[in-house]
User: What shape does this take?
Amino acid sequence: MAIENFRQLAAYNGWANLRLYGATLELPEEAYRRPTGVFFGSLHGTLNHLLVADRVWLKRLTGAGEHPDRLDAILHDDRQNLLRARIAEDARINDLVGSYTDTDLTNSVAYHTRAGARYDQPLQDILLHFFNHQTHHRGQAHACVSILTGSEPPTLDLLAFQRGIPAPSLG
Assistant: This one.
């Protein structure tokens, strides 16, 4: 993959998050926190996990930023604060990916897992995992919105992003 592909995924990530949060903010508080059977329990837990995982990987890639102790940590109990943190993290992701070159993609990145194991992987493999992980859990959050509302949430398809469907202005 070329760096332009990852830049598109970074931009898509921010767009998809805004669309998902737009639907999330319309839910009653009880529904937002209701257990739905997803891995992190609820929509609230899943959205927090996405922020946690992004911070873990950005700390590994940059050496800067917060590094939560647990993958199920609740970083922000309030949805508006979580949204603000999400927007800031998405900007950080865009800036980081925007700073990389095609040559950087083949560079090996050394990091330690939460359990202490050391790994070295090409940056492109880490970025593929990074964006795939977001899509995976964002899909779970999208399903939560569908379950909680009984209706179809806004599309998060990459093609919709590529076709220029706008994200809501939430920030």
In short: The longest strand covers residues 108-112. The mean pLDDT is 96.
